[in-house]
Amino acid sequence: MQEDILINWSPQETRVAVVENGVLQELHVERALERGLVGNVYLGKVARVLPGMQSAFIDIGLERAAFLHVADVWHPPAEGETIATARHLSSQTPIEKQVFEGQSLMVQVIKDPIGTKGARLSTQISMAGRMLVFLPQDDHIGVSQKIPQARRDELRTHLQTLVGDAGGGFILRTNGEDATAQELADDVAYLRKAWQRIRDAASTLPPKSLLHQDLSLLQRVLRDLCTEHTQFIKVDSQEQCAVMLAFCQTFMPATAQKLQHYKGERPIFDLFAIDEEIAKALGRRVELKSGGYLIVDQTEALTTFDVNTGGFVGARNFDDTIFKTNLEAAQAIARQLRLRNLGGIIIVDFIDMTPPEHQEAVLTELRKQLARDHVKTMCGSFSQLGLVEMTRKRTRESLAHMLCKPCPLCQGKGMVKTPRSVAYDILREILREARQFNPKEFRVVASPKVIELLLDEESQHLAGLSEFIGKPVSLQSESAMGQEQYDIVLL
Questions:
Q1: Are 88 and 77 in contact, with CB atoms under 8 Å apart?
Q2: Range 3-34+216-274: architecture per CATH
C-alpha cells in the first residue's frame, strides 16, 4: 500500500486528503472559525446538576453548555485500588455528591458539539504526544492493545523504568513500539511541560477559560496520519510547510524528509481529482465499478447503506452476481465511512445471499477493510433480518454536516409538496380565513408553478370557492418563493 497526503491550505480553511494507491480514502477539513474542540482543556463552571440524568451541564464559554455524565467524572484510584475499581466506584456515586452548582472544574472535551448536542466532557485529562498518551491524574503505565501481546510486558517495563517516580501515567501508542529511549524521553518531557502550563493557567485564569488547545490539523497530520506507508506529504503553502518542518524537527525528525512544498501550477487537489470525489461523497448514491451501487442515508440516530446490483450481470449465475456485488460493496462501504467520517450506529443491508460461505466471505472482507481505519469500529454478524450492524466512534461532525446545511425549501426532508398539494392547502386556508375575517378581497402570493396550476387546472375549484365565500380571490406569482411557501393577504 502506497499512501500520499495532500494538504491544501488557505487562511480560512485547511483541507487534508489521504490518498492510498491513487484513491481518496480520507478527507479532513478544519476552518479557522470552526476549529474542532476535542482535546481542549477548559476551566469550566458547573451550571446545572441533573440527578435524574446523572449528568451536569458545564459552562466552558461556548454557545451551548457542555455535558458531563457521571461515567466521565474521574477520581484517581486510592492506594491498592485498580483503575477499573476506581472507575466503577465513581460511576456508582451519584453525580450530585461529586459536583455542585457554581463549582470550578477542570474538564477536557472528548466529543465536539454535534447538531443540537453540546460538547461532551471528561474530568480525566489525557494529552497525546507523538508516541505516548499522558494521564497526569493517574499513575497507570499501559501499552496499546494493537501491539502484539508478546511485546507488551517488555515495553511496559521499559516505559516504567523511563518514566520513574515523577508521577503521572503513560500509555504507549502503537507508533511508539519501535521508538528509541531518547524519543520516548523527549515525548515524556514535552507532555510534562504542557501539563505544567495547564496547571499554572488553571490557578491564574477565571472560570470558562481555555487552558490548553489541541494541536492544529496540520500538526495532527504529522502526529496521527503519517505512517511508515506514507511516501510524501505535499503542502501547497511555503509558510505552512516551514511551520510543519519545524514541528517535525522537534518531535519527529524521521518524518521531515517526507515533507514537500508543492509548487505546481495546477491546484494540488487536482492531482487526484479530490474535489470531484468530495462532490460524490456528498451524494446519496455511490457507484460501484461492477455496475452496482450503494444508497447512503444519514440520520440523527444512524446511517444506513443499501446495496443494489444495478446493471451488473457479469457473473455466471445469480448467486455469483450477488456475491461479487456484495464483496465490492464491503470495500466501498469501509472507504465511505472514512471519507464521509460517518460515526455512531451504522446498518448495512447487503443483497440477500443464500450460501453461508458467501456471507462469511463478505463479513471477512468488510472487517479486513475496517481494520485499516484510524477510528475505532466494531462490526457484528448478519442478523436474522439479513442486516449487518456496526458502530464507528464519533468524535466530530461528518463531512456532510461540516460542508452542508439543510435545504431551506424542504427543511432537510429531501422532498417538497407537489404544486397541487400546495394549491389545495391554499384553498383550505382561504376558507379558514373567510370564517374569521371579512376583507374585501383575498390575494394569494405563491410560487409560479402553484399560481399556474390555480389559473389552469384548478381554476374551476378556485372560482367555486370565491363564489362560496362571496369574495374575489386574486393571484400573484412570486419567483423568489419556494414551492411550499405562500402568503394569503387580506385586502
A1: no
A2: 2-Layer Sandwich (3.30)
